[in-house]
Structures are given as C-alpha cells and as structure tokens.
Amino acid sequence: MPKGYWIVRVSVHNSDEYPEYLAAAREAFERFDAKFHVRGGRYVAPEGASRDRNVVVEFKDFDTALACYDSLEYRAARAIRQANADADFLIAEGV
Prior knowledge:
Helices cover 38% and strands 32% of the residues.
C-alpha cells in the first residue's frame, strides 16, 4: 500500500510562539505514527519560490495522512501554526 506524506513549506513570522505549535502537534504525530524525513535543514531552491523551512512527514497511507490533518489534536495545533507562520501544505500519496 502506498505511503501518505505531508509536504510542507513554512515561513515562521513569530518565532517566539511557534514552539507552541510543535508541542501541540506532538500528540497527533504520535497518535498517527508520523515519521519525519525532512524537518528544516539546508536546502537550495534552483527553481520556483521557496520558504524558510521544509518538512516531509510520512504516514502508513494516504488516508492516515488525511486523518491526522483533520484530527481534533492537529486542528488545535494547526490554529497555532496558522497564527504564527505562513505555509504551503500538500498531502500526497507516495510510492
């Protein structure tokens, strides 16, 4: 069965409050067995627009990736993220 992924590009505009998002999201990530493959780090953007931070999160399948995003646990965290950062958020099925 193909894996599900979150592919997220983030620009944090309030770095003092952003850690609250990470703490609030932890419960959802644990519940849905999220595996982080990319979380910040160096990057180059030879084409197109970029943001300050890139994240790739793996889930057991596409439906689990969607369920995590829509979960009550992540909804609360998402509101904190949206108040403190701008993001491009994609949920995709992998190989």
